[in-house]
Structure formats: C-alpha cells, structure tokens
Amino acid sequence: MKTVQEIDESTLRPVKADEQGVWQASGALANVGAHPWALSSIVAALLADSRRDADSYVKLYNAGRGAE
Amino acid sequence: MREERQGILGLETEHVVLFLEDEAQPGQPAAIEREVSGEADGEHSAATTPPFSVIQEVLYECLLSNRKAALSSGIKGGYFLENGGSVHLEIYLHDPGDAPILEVATPECRSPRDVLTYSRAFDAILEDISRLSKESFRKRGYRGRLSFGKNNRDTRGAGFGCHENYLVRIPTSLREKIILGLSVPILGLTCFPVFAVFVGFLMLCFLWLLFSKAAPRLEASARRSLGAMAERAPRLVAWLRTGYIFAVTALLFPYVQLSSALIRGVVFRTFIRELTPFLVTRQIFAGSGSLDFQHGVFELSQRSSMTSRVANIVMLGRRKTVFDLKSFLFDRSGLFSLSTPLGLFSSTKRMSITVGDSNLSDVPNFLKTSITLLLIEMIESGESFENLWLHRPIRALQKVSADGPWRDIRVTDAKSMTSLEVQREYLRRAKAFFLDREALRWDPSEALALWEEILNKVADEPQLLASDLDWSAKKLLLDRAVLPKTNWKIFFAWGRLFELGGIAAATAASSWDDYFRRLSPWRRFQARRLAEELRLEPDEFSAQRGLHFQARKIDLRYHELGAVPGYQRALEADGLLRRIVDDRQVESAMNTPPQDTRARVRSYYIQQSPRPQLLHVNWNEIELQNPLRHIPTPDPFFFRLPTD
Description:
heterodimer, A: mainly alpha, 2 helices, B: alpha+beta, 4 domains, two-stranded antiparallel ribbon, 24 helices, 50% helix
C-alpha cells in the first residue's frame, strides 16, 4: 500500500470510495492498518460489540424532529 | 500578562438521549427487537419504553442527586449547576419514536483548557446520570438506563449541534456607524408586528385581571380547569409551547432578515471574511467523522454536509450555518443588548460558531477552541488573511469534508490551495504574530505546538492520527470492520440501496426479495434500477446488510456517553487516545466554577441555596426567591463575591 511519500503529485486527487479505502489516491487513510493499536485486543472487542444487534441500535438512534 | 483583551468562551453541546433496556446487551432494546420481528403491539411497546415525561423526570432526578442546582429562568427550562454551566431538554414536538435532545452548556471560561475541562466535566455528569438512572427507572417499573449520544447526526439525517461562543471586540468605523444608524428606524418598523402582539397580550392580561376582580369564584374555577387540562394533556402543553415558538418566529421574520443582512454585511463582515477559511479547513483535525451513504463517502465532519449558509440568524429548520447570528436576538444584557436595534452598536459581541462537530477526544476539542481564540485575537488586532479568502466557502467546506485534507479549494485570487496548505498558512502567521507579543492569560505555545504537530502528521504520517483525532480513530475502526469482508466501493453501493429503502425495510427484511416487497411501488422501482446499475449480487444481501448496520453502529456508538462506555471512551480508557486534561481536573470541574468569570458569582448563590426551586438563574441574572432579590450579572468578566 502506498504511503504519502510514494504518491506522485499528479495522483494527488481525491477519489470517492474506491476498492481499498476512502481517499486512497491521497494515501491518507489507505494505511491506517499500520497504526500501532489497529490490531489491539480492545479494537477486536469493539468490533465484536459492533456486530451485536447493530440494526436495533441504529434504529433507536433517532432524534426526529427534536434536533435543533 | 494582558487582561483587557482576553475573551470569554464556552460550548453548548446537544446530545441524543437514549433509553437502553436491561434485558438485552447495550444497544439491543427488547421493544425494538419485538417490533422488528413483528411481535410488538402498541401497549407492550409503551409499557417497556418509558414516555418522554418519565425520561425527563428520571433525567432531572439523577442530575440533581447529590448536586446543588438552580432553576433556569430561560424559556427552555432546565437547571444551572454549581459549576456554573446549564442543562436543559430541548422543547419540541414529541413523537413516541423520537429520542429527546439534551443540551449542556459549559460555564463562561477564559481559556481553552478550561473549556475542555468543563466540557469533559459535563461528559462525566452525563455518565453519572446514566449510572443512577437504572435505579430510578426500576422504581418506576422500567428496566433500563439512559445513555447519551454526543454526535451531530441521527439515523434519519437530522442534525444537532456543538456551538462555540466567543466574546469578540470589533471597533466599528464611522462609515459603518452611519450605515447602522440609517438602518435603525427601518429595523424599528420591522418590530411592529411583535409590538402589536405584545400589546394584545397585555390587553388580554388586563381583561383577565378585571375578570378575576368581577367574578373571583368563576376565575378560580377557570384557572383550576386550565391547570387540570394541562396535567391531563401534557402533549397539548408541548404543542402550545411549540406553537408559541413558531408564532414568534413568523412574527420576527422581517426583523430577523434585515438584522441578518446588517450583521453579516457590516458588523461581522471582517470576522466572517477572515475566519471562514480557517473554519472551513479546520475539519481536517476537528471533524468527528461520519458515514455518508447518499454520496458514498466517509466524511471528515458531520456538520459540513448540513451547512448551507455562511452566516444567518437560524430560528428553525435543518439548514445550518457556519456562524449563527441568533445571539443578536436573544441577548438580554441591557439597553445596548443585542436584542434591540441599538445592540448593533455594541463594542463587544458574542460570536456563535455552529459549523463545528461535537468532539469526544481532547486533542480536537482543545485545538478547535484554542486556535479559533488565537485567530480572533489576531483579527481584533487588525491582521488580515486576504490571501486565504475563499471563493465559495460552503462548496469548499463540503469538498474538504467529503474528499479529505488534500482536496484543492479555490481562494479569491483564483489560486487553488489544499486545506492543509490553508491551515499551514494560518499556522505560519499565528506563530509569527505571537512570537514577540506579551503573554496571553493562557500560554498559546502549547496550542501552537500541538497544531503544528497535528498538521505535520496529516501531511506525513496520517496513519498515526488515530491516537489524536476523532475522525481518524473512527475511520480505523470502520476500516477494521469493512475491509476484511469487502471493499469500500461495494460497501457504499449497498449503503446507497439501504439508504434508498429506509432503515425500517432493511432491518425487517429476511431476504433480497423480501426487502423489495417491503418498499412502496415507486421506491421498489427506484431500488431495482439502482441495484441493476450498481450490479449488486442478491446472494450477498444478508452479509452486506449485517456489515452495513455494523458500520452504522460504529459510526454512532463511537460517540456514546454512559455507564457502559462508547467506543471512543473505551479506546481512551485503554490509553490509546491522547489526553490533555486529567480525571482529577475533570472531577473538580463537575462541582466548582471557573474562578475568573461571572460563573463564580452564579455558583456562589447556587451553593448557598437550599433547594433549586428557591433560586432562578439565567446567564445575565440571578433571582433569589425568598426573600425576593434580583442580582444582575451582565458583565461576564466580573467574578467578585459578596464575601471577597
């Protein structure tokens, strides 16, 4: 995966969601997996939680007409 | 240290109030489970999910538990706490399915570090409420607890805000004074409809008084009937209050529009022009991140796509602004208060910035207020950032949010710059400006150094931003959820389909065919066409739907504050996100006010008061009820106590 330094100036153009990541052409987020805590146990626990009853949670989150 | 030029600042933050039932795991309310599976009926659902009145009762009961407070005398009610800040529920029409909105406001502060500390203190107060609410609900026959969403957008796209308020000083030139002077009579005329209604109201009160004198028994009976009606039909009261707000909005319309034009074009012109490029581009560090399924992008900021004007007086509606000029209508600090036409001539003005996201992490929360405050100081001193003025600010705001820090945006001299370059130019100028200046009340070097560090990371080591910034930490979680299963392109293609059909159909559908059956004929036609266009594979329906809602849950639950922490708080508790203020400072700020603003005076009287009902407080005044005594507090810099 390219880092910022490896990307040629001519490719520094934004793209919408591509196959590997948003803003892949900029290199900004393509390599977030390289972050020291990306593979930590807490991240794994949060991912497990996020799978649980996600549709119910999303449906609950509805401020409706109350917002501002 | 310079004192006279130091500003006052504070944050107002709105939160979604969630009721999470006990039986299920967090985020699994049983009532909704039943509804999804088609088992729910109205009565059962009503019995397991408390109505708004119970949520309100529990919320305030837990808020006031072991905490001194005073009733707020503002129209929205709520309480002022002993730390000088306030809490209230927003007034609006309540549908049974709507989650309420809770607004908290920090006390007036004089440094960004204080604002950060008090912002976190209110987070901690909400977490306290969440813990205590379980027992309060149990006593009322409900099994669950409250939790709070500190973000800016719900699942239907409704937005709620985090407003930054700064007291700024703008010297008005002679030319501007002449323009404003000529406008005052016209502004006065536009007030006429409000004046006419006010006179009508006074006449009604007078007639009622006559009625009470002429027929006291009948009047008492009528008063009792009205009181009983209000108790029996709280919804009617809510409707009347909302009707009142709508009526006031309609009557004020001409005045609001003319005031908006004057404030935007004359009074605030310099600030809007000089500060907007910074506010448009600061989302590269201050954004909270958000999934946008309509456009198929991960956005840096939640508020940007909802923002459609640079500056306006926003009364109602979904259209947001970068600057909200509403404070000019509701300031009640005296003859030259901003709510009168003469307020336009006031030398100090409250500037409300409404484009910012709510932040949970310390770094963006600290940076967004500290750098804004430094730039305000520079603009007040006559600095201009002419080379950064934006050609189309709202378009630039949305481009940066959707396309990232490297997106080119047009500045007025026809050049293009990336948002990173704009930020670096502001940084360069700020470093030079503050290098040889007398120290501020707070030391700007920490903020400037942190700003530079973050901008360097954006440029050179974006993968390390997840330890500092909300959008980046959230994006990391989303990448870890999405990329092992599919790619972003396919993920957002399915997201567009689910967005088109709505959440209800997507959650209820058992299969691809069932999903289309649940849509209206027109929606079904649109969805079929979209699915063909995007070449979606029916076999992937279940897996993609699961992933879609998992990602949406991450997008929302990242921001949760409660007894069971949201994802940001969980990451922070593990030491993975950088802290700027520590827990000891936060705990102290839950009960003590800033020592250098009028919040100290407010807090003093709150601490003296035996019960909240015996003290009515607003930002500009304190009213003791027994004995009746009025203490005006118009000067936010005044902090002397009677005992000093």
